[in-house]
Amino acid sequence: MLPWSADRFDTTDRAAVEPVAALVAVLAVGAGLGLYAVALDGATPTPEPDARAADATLERVERDVSVGGIVRPDRLYHLEGTPQATVEVATERRTWRVDLGDGSPTAGRSDPRSDRVAERPVTVAVGPGEAVRGVLRVVIDR
Question: How many CA atoms lie within 13 A of 41 on its CB side?
Answer without folding.
Answer: 6
